[in-house]
Each structure stands twice: as C-alpha cells, then as structure tokens.
Amino acid sequence: MKLRVLGCYGGELLGYKSTALLIDDHLLIDAGNVSILKSADDLSRIRHLVLSHAHLDHIKALPFVAEQLAEGGTGLDVYGTDEVIDSLKSHIFNGITWPDLSKLPTVQNPAVRYKRIHAELPVNIGGLSVRAVPVNHTIPSAGFIVGNEISSILYSGDTGPTERLWKAANNTEDLKALMIEVSYPDRLKERAIITRHLTPQLLVEEFKKIDIKGDMLIFIYHLKPLFVDEIKREICGLKIDNLILLEEGDEFEV
Ligand SMILES: [Zn+2]
Ligand SMILES: [Zn+2]
Predict the structure, then answer these.
(1) Distance from the CA of 153 to the center of ligand 1, in angstroms?
(2) Class of the 2-253 domain?
(3) pLDDT tens digits for 36-76?
C-alpha cells in the first residue's frame, strides 16, 4: 500500500494542516486537507473517502473535493458509520452550511454518495479491505484497519484511552504500521482526558495493550498545532523504536 500524508495535525495554523491520509491514490482516510496535492490530476484519482468522525478537522476539505470530482464526472463515495453520515446530512450538507451535494449537481449524478458502514464489518473499497472499530472520543468515532492481500495498517482516528481497537490490531496478522493520534502535551493530560485524546504518557499506557512486532512502524499524528514543539520533545524523550512523527507530504510504502 502506498501511503501519502496530506495533513497530519489536529487543527490548522501557518505550516500545519488538518488530517488526511491518501492510500493508493484513490482512498482518502479523513479529509482535513487536500491542498498539498500538486495537480488536479492527483485529486481526480480520488474515488472514496472514509471518515473516522465528523469533527471539522477531519471533514473540512470534503465539500471542495466532492465538487471538483463532480465536475470531472465521478463524484465521491463517502463512507462512514450511521452517526457520521447523519451528522454530514444534518450539519454540513444541509442547504445552509453548504448545499446538499448528495443531490447536486444532479440527483442522478451527485457529488457525494453516502455509503453507510458498520463497526467491525470489513468492506471492500476499491480493492482495499476497510474495517471500522469504535474508539473513545467525544462523538461517535472509529479507527480503521485498512489492508490489501499483503499488508494492513491501523489508523486510530481521534481517541482517548481505548480497548477494542487494540484487540482488533492484535488479531491482525499482517499489520505493518500503526498511525496513532497524540494531541496534547503531558501537562494538559486533564484536557486530553476530557476531550478524549492522548498525550505522550497516555500513549505509553496504550502501548501496554498492543502486541507491537519488531519491525512495525509507529506513526504519530494529530498534534494540536499550538503545542507541536512541546509534544515533539516529549515523544522524542520516550525513545520508542520505529516511531515516526508524521509530516505533511510524507510518503511510505507498507
Ligand atoms: Zn481531530
Ligand atoms: Zn475529533
């Protein structure tokens, strides 16, 4: 699988873009940012979007991506659990915040096609298996295990301390990489707990629940831009093998 990091922060400030991961050029996991794509050609290859949850830093680019794909005649399949799809319908594509792109430009060929998925039931999306696993966040949210016939990766979505996702990880034989959120520095642990996110020390506690195999890559993302330097210092201090702090534009083959 080819991974391309289009954004990897839990918000936006100069130099930091919200979260989006592009897999094999056609599957987007979350849509916080696509502006890094250099050409309309790159963007036109996107066919599917899987959303972890409906917070703004994960859906911000969705209306613009879908509109552009509709102009190219393809539109966008948007996958999410019932809560995510219902939230998009009620709060984003409601004719107020933005036009209802599930009916435009035409009802027959809309920009957005909703695809409801269910927890723990893998779906085949363009040749990739995608399995949603509920995590611990302030609104219904999922992490994902995405795989092809050779390897799988895990994407945590936004989560505080959680269980089910790590059980699923431990049952996935070919898991090659974990992409895990860390949002706040340790001094803001209380805020992380209230908003259901992780700090570096909370990450260490989560590691105790995961069977991490020797060569497994650990990608850290979703740092809140205001605290990037502090969080990076704390994470580097943990001295964890194979840990990579993601940067926008990073590409990996797993
Ligand atoms: Zn987020
Ligand atoms: Zn969130």
Answers:
(1) 19
(2) alpha beta
(3) 887 777 999 999 999 999 999 999 999 999 999 999 999 99
